[in-house]
């Protein structure tokens, strides 16, 4: 079985390759992360390359111990770094080996995959994460029952289907169909491709306005 950590590098490198090829103005396009442009997402993802444990501690202290404040501060500040530097950091082996405190390899993979989708879905581009990585993160998010991002999945059934349109179909009770490749839960149907489900389970709002209910 592939270790989750082994999927981090191809996800980050794929994101770097994509962003190197898109028009420069794409860096200033809105991402799925609320209030963040694409460049803010990349500054956030690459933060472990720039912050030593000591500097991270200092940044956390300056943020009053609030990681959200720290993330917003660093993303806003470092989003102005040269694009070439941010691309190099996406390709850095130190980033590919990084694990969030207490999150382990699964946390590292979730971080890479979710934020890569923040960019690719927003830009209307194909996912850069390997299929196995997307499936692993989808399973992890569903197993948490929405708790990781403060969602209420009571009475919701999730279905992933090849070629399914992004968005919600809450008209009735779900039934298994031939192209369903993954399902979780019972109740009203949320049916989309796996990438869209990962984004929805991460508390994101899709470009078409679809989102899952908050707890």
UniProtKB/TrEMBL annotation:
InterPro entries on file: DinB/YfiT-like (IPR034660), Maleyloyr_isom (IPR017517), MDMPI_metal-binding (IPR024344)
SUPFAM superfamilies: DinB/YfiT-like putative metalloenzymes
Gene Ontology MF annotations: metal ion binding
Superkingdom in the source lineage: Bacteria
Record domain Mycothiol-dependent maleylpyruvate isomerase metal-binding: where: 10-92
Pfam name, any one: MDMPI_N
Name recorded for this polypeptide: Uncharacterized protein (TIGR03083 family)
Native organism: Actinoplanes italicus
Taxon lineage: Bacteria, Bacillati, Actinomycetota, Actinomycetes, Micromonosporales
